[in-house]
Amino acid sequence: MDGLPPDAADLELPAETMRAMLDAVAGRVLAHLASLADQPARGELAGAAERSRALREPPPEEPASLESLLEPLFAEWIPASFTTPGPGYLAYIPGGGLFPAALADLIQATTNRYTGVWQAAPLLCQLEANALDWLRALLGLPEGARGIFTTGGSTANGNAILCAREALLGPALRDGVLYTSSQVHHSVLKAARHVGVLPDRVRVLPVDEAFRLVPAALRRAVREDRARGLRPFLLVSSAGTTNTGAIDPLEELGRLCREEGLWHHVDGAYGACFQLCEELRPALAGLAGADSLTLDPHKGLFLPYGTGALLVRDGACLRAVHGASAGYLPDAAEADLYDPSQLSPDLSRGFPGLRVWLCLKLFGLRRFRAALLEKHTLARAAARRLAALEGFELVGGEPALSLFAFQLGWPGASLAERSAATRELLARVNARGRVMLTGCVVDDGRFLGRVCVLSFRTRRERVEECLAALAEESRALLAQPPRR
Ligand SMILES: *Cc1c(COP(=O)(O)O)cnc(C)c1O
Q: What is the per-residue pLDDT for 329?
């Protein structure tokens, strides 16, 4: 390391060294951001397995210079990846990377205050509590609801299942049955297993042609399980599925859950943040009636990866699951104050709230609403135009939020031929390097193409490029369709 102090045990760095390091990183980062729009939408991944193995090395006993580490990081390793923060990333559910979040991370890592227990940093805990309470209010949950930040939607879903389990099953864990649809995010099935709801107590219900859970099927399944002596306790529905963006009929499902005494968890990791837009609230009707709700600020609020959130209607449930004391710890904070380790699984932790707080304050909600509405408008217009092109069919209808699925085909094409043509189309469009699209396989084995507009950097021009690429490549493909 440049400027290493003569006393090797002293890990503190001189101020001028730190400033030089900040400058070096700032230069790299700003150059990287400036080039994002021209970077290939999907980096060069050929030979990635060999290259990964070639990176293995013994632990570094001796110091290295920052420059010798930054150079390969930015020149070789970062480029060998999906360009997730770029405007062409329309794959999976795009993330974000709002710049001020990086400043918050720098501040939290350098000040390194302890936000695990309220007593150690009460005002910082309150900033995080504010951010959580803003999310609660924006999503329409009542004041008694409380939230936690998690590393992502997956752990938020896990904590929701824990709350439902604790509230409704207690020691009768093994009898509890969880219901969800075939389109649910796989993290729910994984989380169920983590918290002791084993696969034989999970009912994956079929969906309708728009990929939505069918309430009548839920009611039937619940009754059947009751007749078997089991205890139905939880429905996990989706506010925007990862495959096609489908929104389950949340209002009707919520009613049904109340009638049947089920906890209603809504997985809104993709879709919940669209509730910020008044125009989109009808599509999400019933969302605010959830007993618990997952949202992912690293998707719908454009933050960098590492920030999910869970809101729970009866805030006491979080404490029931996570509250704990120890002889060496201070007493828990008074009930109205936010004491993170009493409500969430971590003790020592980062300070995830600072990213959210800083970004919401700096930009203001109006700009988030405008950005979300723009993504919706772009996706909707793109879907309509694609549907008007020869050979394209929207599958699951127009986008309720900002994600839609499609298939390419021709009259008389079989299901397998349509799937193969759609796969080939995505491969050709992706090979152009301007956008990255991914597909999904749905219940009947069909492969669908998808477009998800959620990166804050995806603006109209890039969506136009995507449409042009789909139009040109589909024409070429239909002229000589791949048969299978
Ligand atoms: C992304 C996503 C998840 C998982 O969230 P992570 O933040 O990736 O852990 C869960 N559910 C849905 C609907 C998602 O889109």
A: 86
Helix (H, G, I), strand (E, B) or coil at 311: strand
DSSP letters spanning 187-242: HHHHHHHHTT--GGGEEEE-B-TTS-B-HHHHHHHHHHHHHTT-EEEEEEEEBS-T
Q: 199 C-alpha to center of ligand 1: Å? A: 20
Nearest CA, atom 5, ligand 1: 153
* Beta carbons of 452 and 462 less than 8 angstroms apart: no
In the structure encoding, which two tokens stand for residue 25, read together? Answer: 């990183």
Q: Provide the pLDDT for residue 483.
A: 57
The pLDDT tens digits of the residues spanning 129-166 come to 999 999 999 999 999 999 999 999 999 999 999 999 99
Query: What is the per-residue pLDDT for 117?
Result: 95
Model pLDDT, residue 480: 85
Q: 403-408 and 447-452 as β-strands: parallel, antiparallel, unpaired?
A: antiparallel
* 296 within ligand 1 shell (Cβ under 6 A): yes
223 pLDDT more than 90? yes
| CA 93 to ligand 1: nearest atom | 15
Q: How far is the CA of 157 from the centre of ligand 1 (A)?
A: 9
**Average model confidence (pLDDT) across the chain:** 96
Q: Give the span between the Cα atoms of 91 and 437, in whole angstroms.
A: 4
DSSP per residue, 144-168? T-EEEEESSHHHHHHHHHHHHHHHH
